[in-house]
Structure formats: structure tokens, C-alpha cells
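Weekly structure sync, notes
Attendees: PL (lead), two postdocs, one rotation student
Agenda item 3: pending single-chain targets
PL asked that the sequence for the first pending target be pasted directly into the notes so everyone works from the same version. It is reproduced below exactly as submitted, 127 residues in total.
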Amino acid sequence: QVQLVESGGGLVQAGGSLRLSCVASGRTMGTYATAWFRQAPGKEREFVAGINRSGADIYYADSVKGRFTISRDSAKNTVNLQMNSLKPEDTALYYCATGARPVYMSDYARRELYGYWGQGTQVTVSS
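Predicted structure, written out during the meeting:
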């Protein structure tokens, strides 16, 4: 079993930055790929960024490429999401997910492959 706890969300003005953290307990996150997803009101949960077990392979949704950076800190059993140049359309509940063993790049965006999810942290970007 893996328990995930996200933190770092908040209210920020457009153009600002936030750093989200996802801490795992119960099993090392290095066993699986880990990703961040987000869900805005009335919309489906969507893939934001993913990182493989070693941290060598990283993928981003086109909407955040160049602005967000995902990273893994194995010593702290943590995966972080640095979010810069935030836009109002980034407003959503952000979820950390792990438990996946993706084979293809497209697998990172498949919600059903992730067996463990956090409760989410709210990010609100004002214009």
C-alpha cells in the first residue's frame, strides 16, 4: 500500500509560481512512475506531468510544457511540481498519482494505470 499526501497549493496571481509536493508513505515511490493530474470544475481529470521510476524520463501535457517542471527526490520519497508563469486556466484541484508501470509515453496519461491517488491540493490563479 502507498499513501500520498499533496501540499503546496494556494491562491496566486497570474504570472506567479507555486511548488507542489507529493510525499509517499508505505512504499518507496521509486518503485513506480508518478504523475500529476488536475481537475477543474465541470471538467475531466487531465494529465499534467509524469516521471518514471529513475527520473530519467519526463513527460508534460502541451498546455504546461515550458512552464511546469516535475522532479523526484528519492531520499525524501517525494515528487514535486514546480509551476511557473501560472495562468487562470491552471486553476484546478491537483492530484498526485503513483503505482503505474507505463510502457509507452502515452501510458502516463492513462488514469486507470495509477493505483494510488492523493486527496488533491487546490491551486487557484487569479487574473
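Discussion points:
- The longest strand covers residues 92-100.
- The chain has a mean pLDDT of 95.
Action: rotation student to compare against the earlier draft before next sync.
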